[in-house]
Amino acid sequence: MGLLARLYGYVVGRRNTAYDEHRRPIVPVQVPVVSIGNITTGGSGKTPCVDLVVRELQHAGRHPAIISRGYGRRSRGLVVVHDGTSIQTDVESAGDEPYLLADRLQVPTVVCSSKVDAAVHAAGHLNCDVIVVDDGFQHRALHRDIDIVLVDDFTVSTSLLPSGRLREPLTSLSRADVVLLTSTQDADNLTNVVRSYTSAEIYRTEITATSSDVVSENPVVLVSGIANPQRFVFSAASLGYVVADTMTFRDHQRYDRTTVEAIIRRCGGQSNIVVTTEKDFVKLSGHMDAFRAAGISVHVLRITMSIVDGADTFRKRLLKDITEYEDRHFESLG
Length: 334
Prior knowledge:
- By secondary structure, the chain is α/β, with parallel strands linked by helices.
- About 35% of the residues lie in helices and about 20% in strands.
- The chain has helices at about 5-20, 45-60, 90-95, 95-105, 115-125, 185-195, 230-240, 255-265, 280-285, 290-295, 310-334, and strands at about 35, 65-70, 80, 110, 130-135, 145-150, 180, 200-210, 220-225, 240-250, 275, 295-305.
- A twelve-stranded mixed β-sheet has the order 3-4-2-5-1-6-7-8-12-11-9-10, with helices on both faces.
- The radius of gyration is 21 Å and the shape is globular.
- About 40% of the residues are buried.
């Protein structure tokens, strides 16, 4: 480990110790809080996990709200993306992932750099009875009732920033209540590694890709601006798409007219089909006239997460922690 990584680890350790010893304030809100996060930079499946958890809560009769930082957005301060009735802003003000989740799930959604402020606003103004925090593991200033942490093979094979992509050391997994294994080639081995750092419940997940359109044998151009484009390429190929070319942009890419024209030129004579991610499509959807004029159709890959083994146990654990919060809250009032 390099000098900068050791220094980074020291700073992270001091910060975590301050919260562990209650020398930094941890703010509770009026409703239970479910945090979903990881300990690496980049994509690990947090967005499909938020989708999974929110749907489980809805199925149980709950009224969840989502809070997020809103990475890549052009707005500042607190923005209500969805008020529980309808979308209240555009994708550039919301950020691509919160906008996607709000549009797909139709639940109250708030973005703010301070997750405490976002949670307080959601609990006080948006008629929710539970808050789901997107990427909340490191935001320790907000009290949470359950910490769900996503771990993949890469998590246990990399090192601390800036040498690697770990935001925290693996020992931080001790704070997790539930660990979800994603994108693993050897679930048993990963389980054993994770178990050496935490007593959390561990579940294996499956990521499934589906297409918005019928997959044909015609060649396609893949377009994405996500943290893990290789996973997207693999998913498209596994569905049977014949990939003629790929265009990979930075995560949270903004698609302006110039970028869209570049995509259309890249299609050229090799394809009249663009395949993209849901996250990219919410930003490309404003340019559909340009694609249609060029004779190009746009297919969207939707990614969903499911629990492979123990789905009922996971659901019961999720609802148990929420119920325990409510019991404590009512006791304090009585």
